[in-house]
Amino acid sequence: MKVLVAGGAGFIGSTVASALIDAGHRPIVLDSLVTGRREFCHGRDFYHGDIADGRLVDQILAEHPDISAAIHCAALIVVPDSVDRPIPYYRENVSKTLDFVDRLLANSVDRLLFSSSAAIYQPGDDLGVEETSPVNPTSPYAQTKIVVERMLADIAGSSALRVVSLRYFNPIGADPLLRTGPQMPMPSHVLGRLIEAHRTGRPFRVTGVDYPTRDGSGLRDYVHVWDLAGAHVRALERFDDLFRPGTSGHTAVNLGTGAGTTVLELVEAFNSLVSRPVRVEPAPRRPGDVPGSFSRSDQAEQLLGWRAQLDVRRGIVDSLAWFDRRPRVLPDLVESADAARRLAATFGR
Q1: pLDDT range class, residue 286, cuts 50, 70, 90
Q2: Which residues are catalytic?
C-alpha cells in the first residue's frame, strides 16, 4: 500500500513511516520542515512543502496515482505555546487541514487517518476516559483537535471521505531501531524534560503538585511511540472493515495503554534506570495544563486488533538510547539546545 504521510518528518510521523516500511508499505512524506527533519526522510519519497499548498498536493497525487490513503500528522502541538499564540494554532491545525482535505478529495483519496489527541476529553472522577466520554478541551491546542474532528465528520457526511481519528494519549520513547525520535532542541514533553534535567544536573520541575491524583502530580497514560505507529499500520490495513454500509464516515479510537502513571511515578521509574538520580523541584502548573487522563477503552483492540505492548520502562530506555544517538543524527541540535539552555537560565525558567 502506498500512503501519503503529512508531517512525516516529525517525531510521530517519521516513526509511523518507519512502521509502514517495516510492514511492507511505502510512505510518501510531505513536510514543511518547520519542526520536522529532512534527516528523517533519507531513503524515503519526500516532498518539502506545506499541506495547504494545493498545487504541491495535486503534484504528489499525480506523480503517485496509486496512493490509497493519507495519514495527517502535521500540526503544532505545544499546549502552553497554544495558550500564548492561539492564532497560529488555529491556522496551522484547522485552516490548513481543510485545504489539505479539499485536495485529497479532488484527487479521489478518501481514506484518512487523523492524528487527534486525548486532550479533548473531560475525564471522569478516576481520570479514565473512553471514546464516548464528554469533550471539554481546555487549551487552544486541544480545541483545534476537536474542531478538526467535527469538521472532518461533517465533510465525511456529505462526501466519499472516511476518517479514523486516532486519539493519542502521551507518546514516549523512540523508534527501537533509533532511526528517528524526538527532534526539538529543548523538548516540551515530560520525559524529554526529565532527560534534559538528568543531563544538566539541574532539578526536574514537576509543574503541578496539587492535582486530585494519588501523589498530587499530573497523571498520564504514557504510550510508546512504536506502539502508536503500529496502531496506524493496523488502522490502514483494516480501514475498509471499519466502515460498513450505513455507518458514519468518521470514527474515533483511543490509543493508550489503559493505565495511568503519575509524573512522580515516571520520575521514580526513570531514577531506577540511571546511575545518578534526578532531584525533583515542585513548580506551579503551566497555562493549559490539566490533571491528565488515561484510556479505559478496549475499542482499539476490538476494531484494530491492537493493544499496547511496550511499557513505561521500555519507553524510558528507548528515549535514553535515542538522546545518546541524537547528536550524531542531528548534530545542529547540540548548539541549538545549548543556546536554549542559556536563555532559560537567564530568565530563570
Answers
A1: confident
A2: 141
